[in-house]
Amino acid sequence: MNVIFMLIFFSILIAGGFLIAFFISVKNGQYEDLNTPSMRVYLDDEPHNTK
Amino acid sequence: MKNTLNKQKTTCAHCGEDCHEEIVAENKTFCCEGCKTVYSILNENGLCDYYRYDTDAINSLKNIPAYRKERFSYLDDTDVHERLLDFRSDTMNRVRFHIPHIHCTSCLWLLEKLNRIDDGIIRSVVDFTRKEVSVEYSPSDTSIRAIVELLTLIGYEPSITVDNNIKPINYVKRSLYLKLGLAGFATGNIMLFSMPEYFDTTSLISPQYSLIFRILNIALATPVLLYSASDYWRNAYRAIINKSMSLDVPLALGIITLYLRSLADIITNQSPGFMDSFSGLVFLLLIGKLVQQRTFDALSFERNYTSYLPLSVQTIQNGTEQSRSVTSLSTGDIIHIRNKEIVPADSMLLSPHGHVDYSFVTGETAPVEIVKNAKIYAGGRIIGNSVQLMVQKEVSRSYLTQLWNNEIFHKEKYRAFQNISSRFGTWFTFTVIIIATVAAIYRLPDYQVASSVFTAVLIIACPCALTLAAPFALNTAMRMMSRASLFLKNTDVVLDMAETDSIVFDKTGTLTSTHNADVKFYEGSLNGDEEKLICAMSKRSSHPLAQAIAQTLSVKENIRPDDFQEIIGEGIYARFNDIIIRFGTYDFVQNTSTRTSTIQNEVNQSIVHISVNGEYRGFFAIRNSFRSGIEKTLQFLDNKFNIHILSGDSPKDGVYLQNYLPNSPMKFRQTPEEKMNYIQELSQKHNVMMIGDGLNDAAALKASTVGIAVTENTAAFTPACDAILSANHIDTLPVFIEYARFTKKTIVIAFIISVFYNVLGLWFAVTAQLTPLVTAILMPISSLSIVAFVVWTLTYSAKKRGFR
To answer: Which of B439, B456, B480, B499 is 20 to 30 A from B804 via CA?
Structure first.
C-alpha cells in the first residue's frame, strides 16, 4: 500500500509541472493574440531560397 | 487641357513602378490600384507571398520622391518618439503601429520579415486582428522614421494619429488566466483526493491515507482562497464600504464560510470537508468572469477626434514645406493637405477649389466641392487635388474638437445591470443571513449542530448559479448578435438595449444609403452602346458620383477607352474609337446648345452632365436613397417605441419620412451640440437608443443609454459608441431589441431556477443533512444546469430569429 504515497507524490509533481508550464505560457503572452499565430502556421520558413 | 490633367497612369502601390495599361484596364474595379489587384489574384491562388517578397520590386522602390520622404520628418522629433514608443532602452526600442492595410496572411509574412530589409530591426510581430505591427529595433542602427518610411515603401503606411491610434491593450488580464489555472489545478486534484472519502472510508482506505488526503486538500485549497478568489474579497470589501450590496457579498460570504467550515471539520476530524466544492466553486466563478470579459478586438469603441487627426501636417513657411505636429498649429499658418489626407483644424481654402469628404464627421460619403475662401472644418478629408489652407482655429478650439471638452465625455454611463445586481444582492444577503440565524437559533441548545446549520445555510445559499447565469447569458447574446453584424462594446450593453423605450435616428447616412443611390437620367436619351461606354468610363473613376452611375448602369462588359482623362473637380473625358464622351460639370461638358435644365440643383442631389461627341445629351441626377427595408422597420418601431429624428440636414427629406412616422418629433439642421442636448433632455425620462454614424454624433451617442454607430464597413472609422451595427443590417434593429429583451427574461428565469436550487439546498442545510457529498453533487449540478439552460435557450432563439 505504501506505493500509494509515491504515486500521490508523482501525480502532484507532474500536475504541478503542467501548472507551471501553463503559468509560463500565460506570462509569455500566449493567451493574448489568439488569431495571428494560427496564420503563421501557413507560412513557410524560407520560400525563396530555392535557386 | 490644363496642367491639372491627370493622365490615368497608375503607380503600383506595392512595386512603385508605373503599371502597364493592361493591369489598370482589367482591374480598375478594385479599390487599390495596380498590383494590389494582381496581388489579390495571386492571393486567391496562394501565391501571394511569392509576389510580395520580390526583392527587385523592393529595390526599385528605394527611389521614392523626395517630398514623400519629407512627410515623415516630424518623426525625428523626440516628443513624437515619447508618444510612439512602447518601450525604450539603450539597445532596444519597441514601437507599435496601426496599419490599416493588413488584410491577409502574406501581409503578415512580409511584415514579420522586416528585419531582412533593415538590419536595424530586431524583430517585428504582427497582431492580425488589431491590424498592428510591433517593431523592436536597435536605436543606434535605425530610427522610427526609417521604419515608417520602409513600411510606406512596401505599401503599408502606418496611420499615425494624435493618439497614435493604438488602443490601450484590453486583453483579458493575465492574472485572470493565472487564477483560473490555479483554481482548475486545485479542483481537479482535490476531487481525486476526496473521491475515496465518498465511498466507504474504513474498508477502502486506511485512516492514515485519509489524513494525508485531507492535508493535501488544505494545501491545495489555501492558494485558491488567497489568490484565485482574491477579486471576490476585494469586491465584497468595496461593496460593504460603499454600502451597496452587490451579489459579490453573499458570494464572498459563501466562499469563506465553505473554506473555514471545511478547515474546522478537518482539524476536528468531523468530516472530510468541502474543499472540492470550494475550489470547484471558485473555478466556475472565474470561468463566468472570463466569459463576461469578452470583447471584439478588431473593433474600436473608444475613438475620439484624436484617433482621426494625423500627428503631423505639412506647413508652408517662407515658400518651403516643413512637417509640424498638428498640436503646434496656430491661427494663420498655411498648411498643405494632399489627396486623402485629413484637415486637422478649421481652416480657409487658399487654392481655387477642392473637394472635401466629410464622412468621418457626418457619415455622408459624397464629397463636397468648395471654392476659394470657403471654410473647411477639421475632420474633412481632402479628395483629389492637394490644397493649401490657412488655419483659422487651433486644433483644440476647432468646431468638432470642442465637442470633446464637454463633460459628457468624462462621465461614466449608467448601467442597468449593476443596478439590478446590487438591488437583488442586498435582498439576497439579508434573506440568507436571516434564514441562517433562525435555523441556528432553532437548534440552539446543541451548539455544534447550530453552528453547523448556520454555516451550511451560508454555504448552500452561495449564489453561484445566479452569478454564472448573467455572464453566460449576456455573452451568448452578444455572440449571437455579432453573427448578425451587431457588435457590442461589452456584455452590459445587452441589458441596456433591453431597457430601451425611445429611439433617436440621425437621418443622414443612417437611414440613407450611399450604395444604392437613386440615379435618374433626365432630358435627352442614351442608346445602349452609349450606356455601355459611360459605364465603362465611370468604373475607372474613384469619384463617388461616377461610382454611383457605374453601379446603376451596371454593364458587365469591360470596354477599354483609347484615351481617358479625369480632371479632378471637373469631370471625365474618354474616347472610344471615334466617340468622345465627357461627363461632369456643365462647363466641362462644353456643349454648344443652350442649357435647358428644368430641375434645380437640390440640396440632396448631385448632377452629372453628359455629352457625346460634343453634343449635350442630358444629365444624371443622383440622390441618396433610403436603405432597403428601412420604411418597414421604421413603421414597425414606431408602434413600439418613441421615435425621434435628429438630422443635420435640411428638412427636405422630412416630408418623405413624415409619411412613415406621422407622430415622431423631427428636428433638422441640428448642430452636434444641439443633438447632444436633445438626447440629454430626453434621457431624463427615457432610456434612449441613439443611432448615428459620423463623428458629429459622437456626443449624442455618448449621452444616450445605448449609442449605436452604423457603418458601411465595420473596419472603417466609427465614433465612440456602445455598439457598432453594419449598415445593411439596420432593418434587423427591432429584432435585436426584442432579442435583448428576451435575454433579460431568460436571465430572470435562470434566477428563479437558481433560487429554487437554493431552496432545495436550504432544506438539506437546515435539517443538518448537508454532507460534503451532497454539496459536491448539488453545487456543480445547479451551476452547470443553469449555464446550459441560458446558453441553449439563447442560442436556439437566436437561430430562430435568423442570426447566423
So the answer is: B499
Element (H, E) at B87: strand B85-88
Sheet with strand B334-337: strands edge to edge? B320-325, B312-317, B334-337, B387-391, B347-349, B375-376
Distance from the B150 Cα atom to the nearest Cα atom in chain A, whole angstroms: 21
CB A43 to CB B129 under 8 A? no
Cβ atoms B309, B251 nearer than 8 A: no
Quick one: CA dihedral B682, B684, B690, B696, positive or negative?
positive
pLDDT tens figures, B500-540: 888 888 765 566 655 556 677 777 777 777 888 888 777 76
Distance CA B256, CA B274 (A): 12
**Closest by Cβ to B129, choosing from A26, A33, A40:** A33
Query: Residues in chain B whose beta carbon is closer than 8 A to a beta carbon of chain A?
Result: 49-50, 53, 105, 108-109, 112, 125-129, 169, 171-172, 174, 177-178, 181-182, 185, 188-189, 192, 206, 209, 212, 216, 297
Q: How far is A17 from chain B (nearest CA, A)?
A: 11
Nearest CA in chain B to A4: B209
Q: What angle do CA B451, B457, B461 make, to 5 degrees?
A: 155
CB atoms closer than 10 angstroms to residue B198: 15
Measured between CB atoms, does A48 come within 8 Å of chain B?
A: yes
**Which chain B residues have a beta carbon less than 8 Å from that of A28?**
none
Among B51, B58, B174, the strongest candidate for a mutation testing the A interface, having the largest count of A CBs within 10 A, is B174
Residues B157-171 pLDDT 10s: 777 776 654 545 555
Pairing of strands B121-127, B132-137: antiparallel
Q: Give the SS3 label for residue B89.
A: coil
Which residues are CB-contacts of B369 (< 8 A; sequence separation ≥ 6)? B353, B354, B355, B569
Which residue in this structure is represented by grid cell 486538500?
B217
Could you tell me which of B342, B343, B341, B644 has the C-alpha nearest to residue B333?
B343
pLDDT for A38-51, tens place per residue? 877 776 665 554 43
